[in-house]
Structures are given as C-alpha cells and as structure tokens.
Fold this protein.
Amino acid sequence: MRTFYQVVVKYRHPILVLFVLLAFCGAILSQMVDVNYDMKDYLPESSPSTVSLEVMQSEFDGGIPNARVMVKDVSIAQALEYKEMLLGCKGVTDVTWLDDAIDILEPLELADADTVETYYKDGAALFSVTIDDDFRVEAVDAIRSVIGNDNAMDGDAVSTALATTGTVTEIPKIVVFAVLFVLLVLLLTTTSFAEPFIILIGLGVAILINSGTNLFFGEISFVTNAAGAILQLAVSLDYSVFLLHRFDECLQENDNRQDAMVEALCKSTSSISSSGLTTVIGFLALVFMQFQIGPDLGLVLAKGVAISLITVFLFMPALILSTHKWIERTSHRSFMPSFYGFGHFICKVMLPMVCVFSILVVPSYLASNKNDFYYGSAYIYGTDTQYGQDVEAIESIFGKSDTYVVLVPVGDTAAEQELSDALHELSQVKSIISYVDTVGAEIPMEYLNESIVEQLVSDHYSRFVITVEVDSEGAETFALVESIREILDTLYPEENYLAGTGVSSYDLMDTITADTVKVNSIAIAAVFMVLLLSMKSITLPIILVLSIETAIWINLALPYFVGYTVHYIAYLIISSIQLGATVDYAILFTDRYMEHRQTMDKKSAIQETIPNVTVSVLTSGSVLAVVGFLLGGVSTNGILRQLGKFLGAGSLLSMSIVLFVLPGLLYLLDGMIRHTTLHTDHHRSLPEVRR
C-alpha cells in the first residue's frame, strides 16, 4: 500500500483534474436521472396485485380509479357538468359517477340507497377518477383548477403527485441547512479555517459523482432521491476527518508533507476501510429486500460510500497537499475542550451505565417488534397539509372508501351473477359496476351500446368495479382482501385478478414483513464477519454489534411506548442504515482502545481513548443526527419525515452507547477480549510489592 500511496502523492495534480472533471460530468448526468414517486411500482413483479394491474392495463383502457374528487353543493345536473369537465382534464382517462351505476332519469328514491350515497350525499358529489400515471402532476393541477380549493380530492394519484412536487422543493432546503450545519461543526472541531471547506469540497465531489452514476439505474425512488445525497454526506464525513487528523499527527513527526501524507494514509487505511466496508455492507443488506425501494436505496448508498472511500484515498490527499499552505495560514487553536475531564467522568459512570444497558436490551428488542404499522401511502400526509384536510373533508361526508377492480374470464354470465351475489354479501361492499349488475345477465351483449360494453367486457375478461367502505389499509382492509380473494379462488380457481389501492397495500404488507428478518440477519451477519476478519477477534465483533443493535432496538421501541403508528418502510430501512452508519463510532473507539491497551492498563487505556475519539464521534454523530432531524422536520412526506426522525434519534442513541456504555463493556470483558483476539499484546500492570 505504501508504494501505491506514493504514486498517488506523486501524481496528485492529474488526480485533482480527473476528479474535478468527473464531478462536473456527474452534476450534468444527475439532471437526467428520473425519480419514481409511486410505491406500488416497487412491489415484486410476481406479486398478485402487480400481475393483476398488468393484465387490466392490457385489456381495458380506463385503468383502475386512483383518485376521489368531491364537489359540494351541486345538483345532479351540475354534477354531470363537473364530470365532463373532469374528463377534459389532461391526464384523466376515466371518471365514474352515479350515472354509471344507476339510471339517474328515474327518481333517486327508487334506487338502492347504498349505491346512491356512494356517489351523491348531502348535496355533495363524489367522483371516482382514473389518472394516467405519466401525467399525475398535470392532472392533479388541472382538477384543482376545476374544483377550486373549497372542494377536495384524495387517492394514490393525488398523494403521489404531491410527493413529486413537494420533494422537489424540500430537498434543496434540507441540503442547504445540512451543509451549513456541517460547516459549523467542522469550524468548531478542526484547527484551521480552511479545513472545513476542503472537507466539504471532497464530499461534494463524491456526492456529485455518485449522483451522476445513478443514471446507470435509469430511475431512482423518491426515498433515494430525498435521502441519498444527505446520507452520503453524513456517513462519509468522518473518513476525511480521520485522514486529516492522522496527517496532522504525522506532520508532527515528519516535516516533509508528502512523506507525512503517505504515512497518514498507511496508518488510517485499516480503520477507514473497515468503517467504510461495514457501512457499505449495511446498505447492501437492503438489496435482499423483495420490496424494490430497498435495493434501490441500498445500491445507491453503497455505491456512494464506495465512491467516498475512493475519493478519500485518491482525491483528498491530492487536495490536502495542494491547499496545505492555506491550512497553515488559517490555523487556529482548537475550539474544543481536551475531553480528558470527560474521560475521568466516563470511568466513574461506565459500570452503572453497563447495568442500565443490560436492563434495556431485552425489553427494547421486544418492544421494537410490537409497533403498529402503515404499509402503503395512505397516511404519508398529516392533517396539517392540504391533502390531509381534503381526506378529512371527504370522509366526513362519504366515510372511508376505496375502489377495487376484479377481472374474471368472460362468457359465463351465470358464474358472474354468482360472483356478484357473493360480493354483495360482504358488509363492506357498497356498490358494484359490472355487466351483470349494470346491464343484467338476461340482456345479450349484441343489443347494447358498444361504449358501454367496452368498459365492462373485453375480449377475454369481464370487469367488476367494486366500491368498498374500508380504509386503504389496516386490519379490516386486509381481511376484506383475503375474503374477496377466497371468493374468487372458489368461483374462478384457474384464473382471476384483483387490484386496487387496498390490494396493493395488502401485498406491500405481505412483501415487506417477509423482508424484515432476512434483511436484518444479513446485515448483522455481514457486519459481524467484516469485524471478525478485520479485528481478528471473536469477542469484539459481538460487543460492537450488540452495542449498535441495542441502540437500534431502543430507537425502534420509542414509537411503541409513545403510542404512534410507524411507516413500515422507514422502520425496515433504518435498521440497516443505523447499523451501517454508526458502527463506525464503535470501531474507532475499539481500535484506539486496543492501541492504547498495548502500553497501558485497561482503565488508563479507557481514559486515554475517550479524549482521542470524542471529537470525531461527536462530529460524525451530530452531523448524522442533524441531517436526520432536518429530513424529519422539513419533509411533509410522512415516510421521509419518519425516516429522518429515526435517523436523528438513532445516531444520538448510537453515539451515547459508544461513549457511555462501550467503555464499560471493554473494561469488564478485557480478559475475555485478550484470550479471544489474535496477536494481542495487552499491557499487564505489575503487582504492588508489599513491604
């Protein structure tokens, strides 16, 4: 490695030019990366609802209703006018209302009351609208211009459109605040006014290169787009800080800058590489999720950390050496305390903290698995947003409602009538639009208007549009989906299809829940193996992984004790992110402890390690925490907001356990560590001589 680093230092100027060009290209290419805001698109291709959607789209033009639009204080005639205006909006492919379910020329009092109140109640008309996925934003804007702000709309298409426009405006704010905070932290923790800007330049180059290379994926998810860059900033920050600290130490022993940089690279390679590798593996564990947002985020973040590592070992040495005169000219005394007093304090409280830690391990693990969850996108916007207020307005009149679509093989009207009767027996089914319900099984198709038939029957399938009085997810919804699928499998065992928002939420729940144990086990096992190989110890990986996993369990147990519902996607993703991003703190602390333990007794090694690593841990941990809380505070998207809060709280918990609990664990298990670690040369204190 020394020879390689000598080459890097020798050819630092070409390396600088190369990375600047790569960053410039990355900035341009990043603008060409598409962002997908629809969670249903990330279901496995083999999931039943995904297969059903593909069949329906190939057989019918209208698609599945994905929005509800309510217009208040209108007559039947005015509602029909609104229906025509909605049909004229760009991106709207179909609008279903009362006139599609009954003959509105007859008195409404003679019609089925449940069917009427599904679409028209208390002078308000509720339209089921189908919006083309490629024109969600344009369609939602056009619908709003038609109905005005006094009326309401909700549904998957609406929430996805809002996520699209909202995230675009929120991300720049988060990035600006994050960069400003990083700059402030670095100004406080470095000893030169130039160093913070040098570190930020290195991070910026790595982030731009990573953003540009996302073009290889074609598109990325909204979660990746919102969190990818700032997470890369937060988790990669300490690599450059570690290198700068080592460089300063080596300069004190060697006045030759180039030789000092080579020495610093050699000494820091192991700790930076092991930290980076565990982070990469933590993120790569997400690749094993069936729900494809996991692989999407995991690949981008793992690639970003790998690029950051390459940048630290190639670009940063060249940048530091090229700008070192500015570092020297702007040097100042340290603004941070020595933390030696903090080290003495930790030695006094570390054993009681281990006792508290031991008490919390099992309860936090159990509580973290007892949360209530949201699986879909129904609750990603709160009541403090326009969307949340629209949902409340619609539900206050029409209650909770969703639309499912069923396809069954065409040709057997008797079986279709039996299916309709079975579905009507379900208490949650309010109305059904189908050939046998709307037209009647006794009327031959050839006597009907072609425009009516093509909405209900295709060459291969007959379509049932079912309005159900349930939420888009939840226990009752999932039970209803299971009941409908059971009916379909009984009457049409060979072929049937069911789709809708609630159905997709069911498949999301089924898919994501199955991912939990697998993803967490892979992440823990992979990180454990990296630590086992890098530290050549059996005990140390167990201590480090248990420390960070307990921080994760406490973090995920907090919602259970507070009593709020968790978005399962955020719950699942944060486990891998927190493990990969914060195990670095434990690695840094342990590496320094083992280094000092060679020349000191265990208590003195703890006291010496704490001031050595506290600044680095506080720098990285506080940045990750603030980035998380910024994401949680600025974003209106519930998934991103909760992911940010988990990230902020999780980094603080990991940092606290590393600084307050890990010292006590290393102290208590020092003998076991010595006997289960290869090539240890622990200092042994001589016994006192009695006189």
Remarks:
- Confidence is low (pLDDT under 50) at residues 686-691.
- The first helix runs from residue 2 to 10.
- The radius of gyration is 30 Å.
